[in-house]
Amino acid sequence: MKSFRNGIFLILCLIATNTRAQSTHYVYIQTENRQPFYVKTQDILYSSSESGYVILTKLDAGLKKYVMGFPKNQWPSQTFIVDVTIADRGFELKKDESGRWTLVDISTKEVIESIESGRSANNTTAKQDEFSNVLARVTDNPSILQNNADNQGSSMKSNESINKIYAAYDSNGRTLKYTIFQNGRVDTISLYISYRSAVESSHTLTEACNKEATNDDFIQLRRNMISQDNESLMLNEVQKSFKETCFSTNQVKSLSMLIMNEPTRFELLKSSLKHISDKENLPELQSVLTDKALIKSFRKLID
Fold this sequence. Notes:
Elements: H1 2-18, E1 25-31, E2 38-41, E3 44-47, E4 53-59, E5 63-69, E6 78-83, E7 89-95, E8 101-105, E9 111-113, E10 124-126, H2 130-139, E11 146-148, E12 160-169, E13 173-182, E14 185-194, H3 215-226, H4 231-242, H5 249-256, H6 262-272, H7 292-302
Parallel strand pairs: 1-7
Antiparallel strand pairs: 1-4, 2-3, 2-5, 5-6, 7-8, 8-9, 9-12, 10-11, 12-13, 13-14
C-alpha cells in the first residue's frame, strides 16, 4: 500500500512536470501506517482518505501553516509550516525515533518538525542547543536562548521576543527560521546550519567523465526509462547511458525516483557512482533510500 501511495505522488509529479507553467502548487500528505487524519488550514478542514492520504490543491506559493490531527484525538494535534514557494511537495506524516511527529519529504527526505503548542503562558525555558547558540551569535542577541513557547503563531505582547517558526533538516544540515520582535519591529531571520563533514571520494570512484549530461540528455533518458515495460529494462537504459555520459547527483536522484522497487533503485545508484560529475555530493544520493540495510550498504560503497 505504501508503494501504491508513493506511486500516486509520482504520477502527480509527472503531471506537474508537464504543466510547469502553473502558478499554484499542491501538497500530498500520507501517514506511515494508513492512519486517517485531517488537515486544517485557515478555516478549511480537509479529511484524508480511509487509507490515510490527502491532496491539498491550488495553493499559492509561500509558507503554509497546517494543523494536523487524528480522529477521536488519538494523538495531540500537530502544527507544521510547509514551504511551497517553488515546487509541489509530497510528505509522509510519521513519528521520529524520539516519538515526535514529523513530515518527511518523499523525494528529498527533508524532515520538517512540528511546532510545539499548548504550553502555558510565560513558559520560558533555556535553550542551549547548537542552533540557538548560533542564532544568538548572528543576531548579537543572547536573549534568543530564552524561548517563550506561548508566542508560537500568536501576536507578540512583550517588548522583545524571538520565536522559531520553521525547522527542517536533511542529511546535509538544518534550516531554521525565526521571527524577532524588538523595539517595535518584526524581522525574520533564516539560518542554514551545515553539519555534513567533507567527504572525499575513494580512488575507485574517480573514473573520468568523457561527457557531462545536458538537460536534454537527462530528459531523453527519462523518456527512455518511462517507455520501458518493467523496471529491469529501465535500469538497463540508465546503465547504457552511464557508459557514455556522466550525470549530476540531482539528475541521478530524479531518475532513481522513477523506479519504485527499492533494491532496483539501489542498483541504479550503485551503477552511477563512477559516472557522477559532482562527486563531492555523492552522499546526497542516499536520500532516495528508506531501507536501513540498503542505506548502510550504500554508505560502505562511498566510504
